[in-house]
Every structure is written in C-alpha cells, then in structure tokens.
Recover the amino acids of this structure.
C-alpha cells in the first residue's frame, strides 16, 4: 500500500508550544484529526489551508480528536456548524472537558502540592478570561473508546481504490483519556501530544478518571504508554506539534531517557527537611510564571511518584498539604 493520503495543516496558537498540527485525511470520508485552537487566527489558517488543498469547510465529514486540550479541539464547534461533520471525542476526555468539578479537583490537588491560595486564585481568574478554552456545551459528539476503528476509502496514483482503517488506542499520560490513531498496515500513528519530536509532553496533575478522590499517576501512565508504542514497530508518527517523525523508536527511547534523567534530578533536589512539590518546582524552575507554574508543579509531582516508588523519598501530610523529604539511607 502507498503512504496514507495525509496533508498537514499548521495552525497558530497563543501558547508557548507554538503551532499545532491538524491533519487532513484526503480520503472518503474526508476527515480532520484535531482542529486547532479557538482563535480567529487559527480559524483563518484552517480555512485557508483547506482552500489551498481544494476543500471547503463543508467538505469535512468527520473529525477525530486526540485529547481535550484547547489547541486540539477548540475549533470543533465552528467546523461542525459549518460542515455538519460527525465529531468523535475520546470518551474519558468528554467528562473532563464538560465537568466544571474537574476544575475544582485540580485546584484541590494544587493546594495539596503546596500552592498558595492567592496564586491559585490568580491562575483561576486568568483561566476564566481565556476564550480559547471552549467547553463541549452541545451533545453532538460521539464517544471514542479504545479499539474503535475508522475506515477510509481512497484512490491512489493508478486510480485504484484502496482501503485502510485507523484504529483507536487509549494512551494515557499527557492526559488521562488521550487516544492515538494508528494504521496497522503502514504502522503510521497520529500521536496528538503523546509523542513530540522537540519536547516531552507534560504529565499533567489531574484527578483520576477512574477512582474518585484520587490523583492520577500521570507519568507512570505515560511511561507505560511509551512502552506500548515501542512494541508496535511504528514507522511514521504524525505528532500534534512539530515535524513528522520517521524514527519513532529512537524518539521513544530519547523520551524515556529524558524522564529517567528528570527523575534523578528531582530525587537529588530532596533534602532531609521536607518540601512541598510547589517549593521544589520553584527551586527547579525559578523563572516560570502564570500557567507555566501549573506545568512545573505537574512535572515535579509526576516524577516524585517514581522517586517514591523507588524508595528514595518519604512522604508526609500536614494540614492538607503533602511534603516530601529524602528517604533515610538515600
């Protein structure tokens, strides 16, 4: 089989991560994988990209979303209204996007991590003003589950009809319900934010989607997902940000090595006097501001989980806050 009929559209975002990739599958049904952030600039870039490829918004019949972050699903309501396309959204991400209780749960976890209440309040006020983060207010989305398959039909260079399918694989880590879409024949993966060529996805601090009141062990989940990917023999990865990856195995190993080094650095930051994750994040990332403080705390908490599992950290709780210190003998 020839390579898949994929066209990459790069859309601007207001975030530090830079442009986000939207993938147009030029087959029947015409499909978008992710759709960009809810800004006029991104909407204009998407419409121009479709036009340059010979399509109108009305041409889009199906939208596959990888995860519930605004740079990946923000324009879904606009494209759906213009096209009537069916939107497929990861099942575990729908509740997280729609349920405002999730916002309070993340706030609770940040308090447990030692974040001052005044800073938490300022971050929440900034979140409320951010119009790039739409909710899924309508019910016109179809939940996507692990194992779901999406068939395509297209005509290659010889006008011969060919068929392929993208299989859904639940790959938690960056978020708890993140999915990737894989063509098993060409071993091509649309990775969302689960595998990025220029940075390692942040293992976000989030409540568990399966155990109410518990915190997700995001990095442990992510490493398990990376190990699953490494066993698939992938040959090409289309990431949510950055250029296509032609050596996925090497990138997976580099990402795993990054986290091994980061875990070591977090362990070395521990002392005999107990510290909160917020304090450790301030020491390790002294220049971060705004929303990036949340990312820094997420990074530290995720690696602390592995340090504790290794027996190199002791944990204690006091007045609703979690503290970590170097384990005896470490």
């Amino acid at each position: 089989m020839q390579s898949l009929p994929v066209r990459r559209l790069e859309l601007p975002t207001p975030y530090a991560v830079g442009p986000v990739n939207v993938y147009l599958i030029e087959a029947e049904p015409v499909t978008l994988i992710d759709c960009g952030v809810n800004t006029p600039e991104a909407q204009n870039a998407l419409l121009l990209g479709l036009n340059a490829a010979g399509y109108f918004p009305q041409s889009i019949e199906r939208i596959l979303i990888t995860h519930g972050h605004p740079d990946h699903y923000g324009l879904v309501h606009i494209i759906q209204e213009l096209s009537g396309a069916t939107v497929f959204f990861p099942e575990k991400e729908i509740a997280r996007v729609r349920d405002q209780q999730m916002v309070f749960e993340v706030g609770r976890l940040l308090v447990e991590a030692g974040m001052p209440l005044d800073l938490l309040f300022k971050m929440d006020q900034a979140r409320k003003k951010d119009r790039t983060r739409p909710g899924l207010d309508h019910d016109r989305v179809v939940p996507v589950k692990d194992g779901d398959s999406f068939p395509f039909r297209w005509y290659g260079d010889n006008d011969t009809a060919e068929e392929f399918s993208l299989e859904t694989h639940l790959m938690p880590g960056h978020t708890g319900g993140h999915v990737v879409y894989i063509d098993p024949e060409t071993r091509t993966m649309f990775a969302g934010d689960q595998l990025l060529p220029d940075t390692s996805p942040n293992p976000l601090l989030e409540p568990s989607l399966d155990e109410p009141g518990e915190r997700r062990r995001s990095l442990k989940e992510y490493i398990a997902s990376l190990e699953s990917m490494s066993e698939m023999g992938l040959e090409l990865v289309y990431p949510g940000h950055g250029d296509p990856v032609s050596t996925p195995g090497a990138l997976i190993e580099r990402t795993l090595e990054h986290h091994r080094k980061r875990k070591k650095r977090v362990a070395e930051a521990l002392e005999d006097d107990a510290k909160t994750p917020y304090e450790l994040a301030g020491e390790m990332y002294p220049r971060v501001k705004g929303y990036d403080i949340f990312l820094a705390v997420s990074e530290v908490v995720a690696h602390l989980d592995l340090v504790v599992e290794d027996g190199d950290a002791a944990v204690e709780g006091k007045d609703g806050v979690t503290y970590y210190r170097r384990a005896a003998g470490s």
About this structure: The chain has a mean pLDDT of 92. The domain at 6-255 is CATH 3.60.15.10 (Metallo-beta-lactamase; Chain A).
